[in-house]
Amino acid sequence: MSRMNLLEKLWQRPVVERIAETDWMTGQSSPLVVEFDPTSACDLACPGCISGELLNKERFSRERVVGLTAEMIEAGVKAVILIGGGEPLSHPAIRTVLQMLGEAGVQIGITTNGTMIDRYLDEIARHAAWTRVSVDAANATTFQHLRPSRTGQSRFDEVIRNMELLARVKRGILGYSFLIRTAADGTGQNVAGGNSGLGRIQLTNVHEIFEAARLAREIGCDYFEPKPSYDDDHYLVIHSASDLEVAREQIARARELETDSFRILESINLQYSLAGHQMTPQPKAYTTCNSAQLRTLVTPSGVFVCPYFRGNQTMKIGDVTRSSFLEMWTGTERSEVMGRLNPSCDCGMHCIRHETNLELFSIRQLLAAGSQLEPTESDDPDLFI
What we know:
11-stranded mixed beta sheet; 35% helix; 15 helices
C-alpha cells in the first residue's frame, strides 16, 4: 500500500527556493498553493457532508472568478486545487479558469463528485495534474444512499462513465476516493453536517471496498483511496468493531490488486481509524503555522487560514470579493489573524500538515545557519505541498 509523503515534496528545488524567499513574519507576495472554492453550489445532497452548512449559499461571479484567477497567476501562485465547499466544476466560468491556469503553467488539482467531468473533458485532460473523484460506493444503490442526487436518481453510472472517459485521454493522475461510511457517522457528538438538514447515514459501505477498488482499476484509475470519516471538529468517527473488521479485510484484499500502474493509496490517519482509536487532540509544540504562509483557502465567503477553518470567521484572513488577491494576502486582516494563530492551542485536530510544519522548521533552521541544502531535481515537480 502506498503512503502519502508530503515531506519529500518540501525538498524539491522550486519549493526549497520558495521557502528560502519567504518572509516568515509577514509571508511571501503570494502562497505557493491555493485551495480554491469557486462556488458553494452542489448538485448532490450527501448525508453527513462536512461542508453541509455552507452548501448552496454563495459563489463568485463569472467576472470575479476570472479576475481572481488572473490575480493569483500574476501574484506567483504555482498550484491551485479546485475544491469545495460545493462542486467546483459547477461554476459557469470553470472552463475559462482551467484554461487560464493551465496555459500559465500553474499546476491544477481537482476534487470533484465526477458528475460534470464530461462537460470539461478536454480541459481537464489537458491541464489537470490530478483529478480525485469522490465515489464512496461500488454500485448505484449504495451511491444513491450516500451521494444522492436532488432528482432522486442515482448518478453512479454517469460518474463511472465520466471517469472512464477521462482515463482514456488524461495526462495527469486519476483517483477513486472511497470515504468509509457507517451508521456511526450519524451518532457522534459533533456529527458532520449535523445542522444542515442533510439527514443521516443509513447504511455501511465497508463491504464494498474491494469491489470499488477493482472497479477503479478496471476503468483506468491510477489509484484507489480508502479514507476515514471525520466529524465537524475533524476528529475521527469511531465505527463499530464489526464494521472495522470488515473494512480491514476488504482493504487487505484490495492491496492484492496493486500493479505498477495502480496503487491503493493510504490516506492520513486511516490506520488509526481501522484500529478503532479515538484520537485525542494532537499536541503541537509550535506557536506559528509554517504551512499557512505557503498555502491558503479561497472561498466566496472569505479567505481562510486553511480548510480546517473553512467558514470559521475567527480564522478569516480576508475577502477577495472586496479586494484583490494581493491586497488580501498583504493586508492587515491577514496580518492580525496570522499574528494570533497559535497551533498549540487553536489546532487540536490531527492536521494533515503537522509533519510538514515540523519539517519546514528544520529546513528554515538549516537555511538560517547557512547550510548547503541538496534539493531534489525534477523536470516535473509536484508543487502540491
